[in-house]
Write a structure and sequence with these properties.
Elements (H helix, E strand, L loop, with lengths): L1 H8 L3 H34 L8 E5 L2 H7 L5 E9 L5 E6 L16 E3 L9 E6 L4 E8 L11 E3 L1 H5 L5 E6 L6 E2 L2 H42 L1 H9 L4 H40 L12 H30 L18 H16 L9 H27 L6 E2 L12 E2 L1 H8 L4 E11 L2 E8 L1 H8 L2 E5 L7 E5 H7 L6 E5 L6 E11 L7 E4 L1 H7 L6 E2 L1 E4 L13 E6 L3 E2 L5 E8 L6 E9 L2 E9 L4 E8 L5 E7 L2 E7 L13 E2 L4 E5 L12 E4 L2 E4 L5 E5 L5 E9 L2 E9 L8 E7 L10 E7 L6 E9 L2 E9 L4 E7 L6 E9 L2 E10 L21 H41 L1 H9 L4 H36 L4 E2 L2 E2 L6 H27 L3 H20 L12
Parallel strand pairs: 3-7, 4-6, 13-18, 15-17, 22-28, 29-35
Antiparallel strand pairs: 1-8, 1-9, 2-3, 2-5, 2-8, 5-6, 10-20, 11-19, 12-13, 12-20, 14-17, 15-18, 16-17, 21-23, 23-26, 24-25, 24-27, 27-28, 30-33, 31-32, 31-34, 34-35, 36-37, 37-40, 38-39, 38-41, 41-42, 43-44
Helix pairs in contact: 1-7, 2-5, 2-7, 2-8, 2-15, 5-8, 5-10, 5-15, 7-8, 7-15, 10-15, 10-17, 10-18, 15-18, 16-19, 17-18
Length: about 1000
């Protein structure tokens, strides 16, 4: 039939605008779906290298553990062991098959930490469920997945006293706690974030469905005259409903397909833009089978919403007599109470409301702006997750680390801060998961933690033992634990097993409320840290960003070791800006009485070399000082002699080759070398051959060249080994707290035969082993970068076996600015993986949230433009009259934008309220949690004002988009279109059977 073709296939400009609005709406949903699935896949792949594929459960009864365990699981019975001093320890029985799940082999007997190997075995007491027994305990060695504080024994030994509990280690990941928590933390945490995004999009989708319904109803209302005609000519109501359902479904389907294309393009553009600006991200938006199924279901849902909306709207229209279709009901008498109320309301609207646009536009505008508000508030809430996964606050940590868990600093920094009266807490951060609930574990000394965070003990007591723990109030609710409960904890990036007893719950008002606080020894076992390293040191001091030019630190000074009198000294100082701001500082250099200064500007975290020219005069030894760093310069006609390269000891009568050099490295000929009563002279190459004395003892070895002399000592012994002559030096000689000094070990073979020795350098939290093979007279140098150390004296030693070959001490200089210093200028890449997972997980989250915000903004502009376009089109006669009476297009644009501002103020405020309600609902249903953090459903005043302002701006932009096409048309065309519509309405009102209706044009 002809009317079916008209109702279904003839689309007006307004219908095409409806298609665009639906397309933008679907683009938001499709873009969100693409990003959600891609982010989830990428997060899982980033942390996949930490998939330990094993987990651990704890049980209070060993029989229950045995019944529950699968055949491939390993059951570890536990009890208590008491040492000779009366201190209780956890004892665990390790069965023969423990190695199948990565556990250590069973010990021979019972072993415990702290037992003196030289003193022999000790007598301990085992306490179990059925009795006690004395047992002989040997020394435990090695560090593995079992805590070093636990006593280890055999199942047979523990069975004598009866186990009090058990651990079950499973090769699968179905247990409470994974042995490696990083993968579970990121996988479940990302699932939480993406679940929030899905829920938010679903909530926004409901609002979008309302907007879609409004748009479809507007297109049907425009066809009211057609409905009246086809009904009057005999078409059944059902046929009309199906026609409009097909029309609305077609509009929705076309809009959905177009929206799919827009959403795909925008999301790929967002990822590309993130890469261009340098944001770390691994997102790859591709249409996988999973995404295809999701998109097809989404497009089908959009089409069904269109069909249902068209049918329901047409049903309401066809339920009336044909003559009343599209007519408004009479408002009643203007003289009654309701009429007076309307008159009062009309007066208020005239004063405060829009002058051209209809006030009823506020409702659909609120619906569209609510979509934007929901997305932005979710982004703001999820932004706290990014903050919890990023280095923040006042702390000594690597400045570029994606997370403090990627940082390595010495715990000794805390001592330096405390000596200055500044509270400091060295801390280790771990990724953990319990029963698929991701959370962060913080290792700290509770007293130090309390001095910085000021926690309030809500329940229980403070921790006193290594296996005591306190839990934040929010995490306690999430995990369902409290004082007295035992909690099994796995490792973070390395496989480990731990058990803590919750002794209290605390509240800090910060992220610690969502974390488990354990002791540093427990955290160190669960982490990959070595020595005294921690991830960060939190302090109450002012952050480095507030530091002035004094924050610039001299980390090294390089100058000549010797110059002749009257020669100038060129000194090069390496300076570093450890802050996040551009800093200017004036540096001063001093050599004796001469001084020089330079002013430098340094960018954040930048190293720069600054040169100084200083004069010399009188021969002497001077200190070259720049900032806190010094080095020695000898002013003399001839360079002083270097210490002779002698071994620490040697056998009687052995032949030695002794090189003699100046401190400039130049060989010295005709120098005399004396060892005991034996002497020799150096040749042109600066080397003297000499034999050691025949009698054992310690002898002075003297090197003399003119007035220059240097003395060392050597031990002669029959059992002495032929070790290489060894010296070790530190550069810079007096490093600052920000510098990583270099230890240079020079090894010389002075013997007349080849030597091969294992060499170990140890000290300053560094340990490096190597084997050197040297031919007679050969020299080699090995360098090692030492870790940054707090102010004070530190030593480095070089040894072979149990013999020390050389030692040296150096002083780390620093001042009160150490509290503003960060421990490094770049990433630490020890394990090479976890920092990448964190960095890209945060980057992916930022791209996801940023793209969602952009899509929401575009959707709102399109949808609100459609709403305002309808309102403006309805008032085109009024606008035409304004134009015809002399109003300029700019004047009309100002009037419309003023009305849009009034509408936007009300609609934006209402949208913020709707969005807060949606987030409150998510919080009540437990859907507003990510990475173990319960997100705040109520925005701060700043965020709320930003959303309100953003909604108002988007409304004005939408009004501009909707108004410009109308203003570009001549007034006559607007009046002609409006007059034609009025004439049509009058003819219809005068037709037989019609009822009077109010003119809704103006």
């Amino acid at each position: 039939m002809t009317y079916l073709r008209v109702l279904v296939g003839r689309w007006s400009r307004r219908d095409r605008l409806a298609v665009l609005v639906i397309a933008l709406t679907v683009a938001l949903l499709v873009g969100a779906a693409l990003l959600v699935v891609a982010a989830g896949d990428q997060t899982r792949s980033l942390a996949a290298e930490y998939d330990g594929n094993a987990s651990v459960d704890s049980y209070d009864d060993v029989d229950e553990a045995t019944r529950t365990a699968d055949p491939e699981d390993v059951v570890l019975p536990t009890a208590t062991a008491v040492d000779p001093g009366g201190e209780a320890h956890r004892v665990v029985a390790i069965p023969e098959d423990a190695s199948t799940v990565g556990l250590p082999d069973p010990p021979e007997g019972t072993v415990a930490p702290g037992v003196d190997v030289d003193a022999g075995n000790e007598s301990w007491r085992l306490e179990g469920s059925t009795g006690t027994a004395a047992t002989t305990v040997g020394a435990a060695n090695g560090d593995d997945t079992i805590p070093p504080t636990w006593v280890r024994t055999t199942p047979e030994t523990l069975a004598e006293v009866g186990p009090t509990g058990a651990l079950v280690v499973s090769p699968s990941s179905e247990g409470d706690a994974p042995l490696i928590g990083a993968l579970e933390f990121f996988t479940h945490g990302a699932a939480d974030v993406l679940g929030i995004v899905r829920t938010g999009i679903a909530a926004a989708g409901v609002i979008v469905a309302v907007t879609l319904s409004s748009v479809v109803r507007m297109t049907i209302r425009d066809r009211a005259r057609t409905i009246r005609v086809v009904r009057a000519t005999g078409a059944s109501p059902r046929r009309v409903r199906l026609a409009f359902a097909a029309r609305a479904g077609a509009i929705a389907t076309v809009g959905g397909v177009l929206g799919y294309a827009i959403g795909t393009i925008v999301t790929n553009a967002a990822v590309t833009a993130a890469v261009v600006v340098g944001l770390p991200t691994t997102l790859s938006v591709a249409v996988t089978p999973e995404i295809l199924r999701l998109v097809v279901a989404m497009l089908a849902a959009v089409g069904l919403v269109g069909v249902a909306t068209g049918y329901v709207t047409a049903r309401a229209a066809t339920a009336k007599p044909p003559a009343r279709v599209g007519r408004e009901e009479s408002g009643g008498s203007e003289d009654g109470p309701r009429g007076r109320v309307r008159r009062v309301g009309a007066g208020v609207r005239r004063r405060l409301g829009p002058s051209v646009l209809a006030p009823r536009t506020i409702l659909p505008a609120t619906a569209t702006l609510s979509t934007f508000a929901v997305i932005v508030l979710l982004v703001a809430s999820l932004g706290t997750v990014g903050a919890s996964l990023g280095t923040a606050g006042t702390a000594i940590a690597e400045p570029d680390a994606a997370h403090p868990a990627d940082s390595r600093v010495s715990a000794d920094y805390a001592e330096s801060l405390e000596q200055r009266g500044i509270p400091a807490s060295p801390e280790i951060l771990l990724f953990a998961s319990h029963d698929e609930e991701p959370y962060l574990v913080r290792g700290a000394d509770y007293g130090a933690f309390a001095s910085v965070s000021d926690p309030r003990l809500v329940e229980g007591t403070e921790p006193t033992a290594d296996e005591d723990a306190v839990v934040g109030v929010e995490l306690a609710d999430a995990l369902g634990v409290g004082p007295g409960d035992e909690l099994v904890v796995g490792g973070s990036t390395d496989a480990a097993v731990g058990m803590v007893t919750v002794v209290g719950t605390v509240e800090t008002g910060g992220f610690a409320d969502h974390q488990l606080l354990v002791s540093l020894p427990t955290a160190r076992h669960l982490s990959a840290l070595e020595g005294d390293d921690v991830n960060q040191i939190r302090t109450a001091a002012a952050p480095a960003e507030d530091a002035d030019g004094e924050a610039v630190t001299v980390v090294d000074v390089d100058g000549p070791a010797h110059v002749a009198p009257g020669e100038s000294v060129t000194a090069e100082a390496t300076v570093w800006n450890p802050t996040a701001e551009d800093v200017e500082r004036t540096l001063e250099a001093q050599l004796g009485d001469d001084e020089a200064s330079r002013t430098v500007e340094i960018e954040p975290y930048e190293h720069r070399t600054v040169a100084f020219e200083l004069a010399t005069s009188v021969a002497d030894e001077y200190e070259l000082t720049v900032g806190d760093v010094t080095s020695s310069v000898v002013v003399a006609d001839a360079a002083p002699l270097e210490s002779p390269a002698l071994p620490a000891s040697g056998p009687p009568g052995a032949s030695l080759s002794v090189p003699v050099e100046t401190i400039d490295g130049e060989p010295v000929s005709n120098a005399t070398v004396r060892v005991g009563n034996r002497t020799a002279e150096t040749g042109a190459d600066g080397v003297a051959g000499i034999e050691l004395p025949a009698d054992p003892g310690t002898y002075e070895a003297t090197v003399r060249a003119g007035e220059r002399e240097h003395t060392a000592s050597i031990r002669v012994a029959r059992d002495a080994d032929r070790d290489p002559a060894t010296s070790v030096s530190i550069s810079p000689s007096s490093p600052s707290v920000h510098a990583q000094p270099t230890a240079a070990v020079e090894l010389v073979n002075p013997w007349n035969r080849s030597v091969e020795s294992p060499i170990e350098l140890a000290g300053a939290e560094a340990s490096e082993r190597t084997t050197v093979a040297l031919e007679p007279g050969e020299t080699t140098t090995r360098t090692t970068t030492l870790s940054r150390q707090p102010p004070g004296n530190h030593s480095v030693a070089v040894a072979t076996g149990d013999r020390t070959l050389a030692t040296t001490e150096y002083e780390v200089v620093g001042d009160d600015r150490v509290v503003s210093a960060l421990a490094a200028s770049g990433h630490h890449r020890a394990d090479g993986g976890i920092e990448t997972a964190i960095e890209y997980a945060v980057g992916n989250l930022q791209v996801l949230l940023g793209a969602l915000t952009a899509l929401a903004a575009v959707t709102v502009v399109g949808a609100t433009s459609a709403v305002l376009a309808r309102a403006i089109r309805a008032r085109r006669r009024t606008l035409a009259i304004y134009r015809a009476t002399g109003a300029s297009p700019r004047r009309l644009l100002g009037i419309v934008l003023g009305d849009a501002a009034r509408i936007g103020v009300v609609a934006s405020a209402a949208a913020v309220g709707v969005a807060v309600g949606v987030l409150e609902l998510l919080a009540v249903t437990g859907r507003l949690t990510a990475f173990g953090i319960s997100l705040a459903p109520r925005p701060t005043a700043t965020v709320a004002l930003a959303v309100f302002g953003g909604g108002l701006v988007l409304t004005l932009v939408a009004a501009l988009v909707a108004t410009l096409p109308i203003l570009q048309r001549p007034p006559a065309s607007l009046l002609a279109a409006s007059s034609a519509r009025i004439a049509t309405d009058r003819r219809e009102r005068s037709a037989p059977g019609s009822e009077p209706e109010h003119d809704q044009t103006d």
